[in-house]
Design a protein that fits this description.
With about 375 residues, this protein is α/β, with parallel strands linked by helices. About 40% of the residues lie in helices and about 20% in strands.
Length: about 375
């Protein structure tokens, strides 16, 4: 079974990978220069050696705070006055490209606190998405299904961002408008004109956010249907739990926008009592079910939840390559230790078939012994890589 939307989006992706990664004063790396193979890369070493720090550096080659969502001060090594710097040489079908990013000492922790250069020219953060896409799966995400709706929203929006770079700007504009409305609520303002202007912006950006999320879920569903029913990683069913997302899936966006603005207006009294906006895409949730068991993901075993996450990550990686036209770089932190031998073998086989550059970490290199002849193995110890 296929999807017309997915088939329309699909095109042969350009192969993209990191040839060399250089770090300066980042976490526990004073300096580092690491050559990377275009396929599977295994980083092994003891806990605290700096394996995850390397993956975090790569995750900063996209907009945002990376997969730890840490402050720039936390990312900076011992020399806090100089800040940190990350440099990557990208290889691929279109030739080499140089990307640099970092934060200077004393810079703030907002998006403006980190600078980006591509081939020596200073560019906006959004332009990183034109060069590469990065997808990650970390142990912290193991609590995705049992954690808060906010965690799942952030996860969902990261999935959307990988195929729709404009999503970050929409989210920022909506958050800015909502903060303005919340200030008016707290101040007990009755300025109808200010409220109307802010609510109109919230309606426009909020419906755009809901539409992008809805499209992502539809594409993920279609991608899931392309996979075999007896695969090592169970199929997942997805549903968006949010008024705007439900409405925009069945009604014209302009009508949903009009109704949302009217609802915000009618609920000012209730929201004034709460001191915040209680309706909108910032309250939505992503619901996931284990299809073979027809069970909500939060009720599955820890192992089943991990298998679901891996399957979702692989489906999203395929979708990202199809829609963006760029093969994504995958970051799989401590992935092998949480899978049994059968699923490890299946995962390595799928990754080899995909051909995307994939950086995997583990404390025990022996868990990756089955790919010893086809992967690059690097040893990490005390901020040094060999």
């Amino acid at each position: 079974m296929s999807s017309p939307a997915l088939e329309a989006a699909r095109r042969a992706p350009e192969n993209v990978f990191i040839e060399r990664l250089k770090l300066n004063n980042f976490r526990n790396y004073a300096t580092a220069s690491i050559g990377l193979s275009p396929g599977l890369v295994v980083l092994s070493g003891e806990n605290g050696a700096g394996k995850t720090n390397l993956l975090e550096a790569v995750s900063l080659l996209t907009p945002g705070r990376g997969f730890r969502r840490a402050s720039y001060a936390e990312m900076t090594g011992r020399d806090h006055a100089s800040g940190f710097a990350i440099h990557a040489t990208l290889g691929g079908d279109e030739g080499d490209c140089e990307i640099g990013t970092g934060a200077s000492g004393g810079n703030g922790d907002g998006e403006a606190g980190r600078k980006v250069r591509i081939n020596g020219a200073t560019v906006s953060m959004d332009e990183l998405m034109e060069r590469l896409r990065v997808i990650w799966l970390t142990p912290a995400m193991d609590a995705l299904f049992t954690g808060s709706a906010g965690d799942r929203r952030r996860y969902l929006d990261r999935l959307v961002l990988a195929i729709d770079p404009a999503h970050a700007r929409r989210a920022q504009d909506y958050e800015r408008a909502m903060r303005g409305r919340n200030r008016l609520l707290v101040e007990q303002s009755n300025d109808a004109r200010w409220f109307e202007a802010i609510e109109a912006q919230m309606a426009e950006t909020g419906v755009a956010i809901a539409a992008a999320r809805t499209e992502l879920v539809q594409l993920l569903r279609a991608m899931t249907e392309l996979l075999p029913d007896d695969g090592a990683f169970p199929k997942a069913d997805f549903e968006l739990d949010g008024d705007l997302e439900r409405d925009v899936a069945i009604r014209p966006a302009v009508d949903v926008e009009t109704d949302f603005a009217a609802r915000l207006s009618s609920e000012r009294g209730r929201d004034r009592s709460a001191g915040r906006t209680l309706t909108g895409p910032h309250r939505s949730d992503l619901l996931v079910r284990h299809r073979p068991k027809d069970m909500p993901a939060e009720y599955c075993s820890t192992g089943e939840q991990k298998a679901l996450l891996v399957g979702m990550t692989l489906s999203h990686a395929r979708l990202t390559a199809d829609v963006s036209g760029l093969t994504p770089i995958l970051l799989l932190d401590e992935i092998a230790a949480h899978l049994d031998a059968g699923r490890r073998a299946a995962l390595f086989g799928i990754l080899a078939d995909l051909g995307y550059q994939t950086l995997m970490t583990g404390t025990d290199a022996a868990l990756f012994s089955s790919i010893a002849g086809s992967a690059q193995f690097l040893s990490v110890s005390n901020g040094e890589v060999s």
